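To illustrate the input format used throughout this study, we show a single complete record. The first block contains the structure-token representation of the backbone; no residue identities are included at this stage. The design step must infer an amino acid for every position from geometry alone.
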């Protein structure tokens, strides 16, 4: 059977996260989980950590501002749910590809 609807567009993610899961301390037993996709993680990083506006951030992920806004809203909801209810936050999956790394010769003129 053929999939319905539009195919998922691949989003550009600059790098894999350094940590793939956060777990609450002090909660007995195994906590519930919230899955955050890599493109949701990237949206949080660009908007909240790098403080890019949505248009710039969408451009760097090769998506429209409206799509970026939807991804960011979903990511913030999941992150808040994990924090409020003490759930484990796992970063994995999604429709993405890693951005190509800049070649060292492209950094001419920059001091290290």
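Output of the design step:
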């Amino acid at each position: 059977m053929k999939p319905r609807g539009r195919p998922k567009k691949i989003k550009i993610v600059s790098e894999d996260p350094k940590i793939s899961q956060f777990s609450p301390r002090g909660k007995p037993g195994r906590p519930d989980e919230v899955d955050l996709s890599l493109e949701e993680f990237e949206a949080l990083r660009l908007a909240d950590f790098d403080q890019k506006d949505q248009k710039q951030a969408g451009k760097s992920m090769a998506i429209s501002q409206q799509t970026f806004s939807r991804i960011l809203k979903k990511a913030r909801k999941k992150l808040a749910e994990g924090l409020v209810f003490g759930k484990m936050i796992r970063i994995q999956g999604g429709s993405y590809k890693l951005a190509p790394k800049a070649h060292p010769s492209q950094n001419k003129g920059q001091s290290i």
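Structural context for interpreting the output: The chain has a mean pLDDT of 83. The chain has three helices and five strands.
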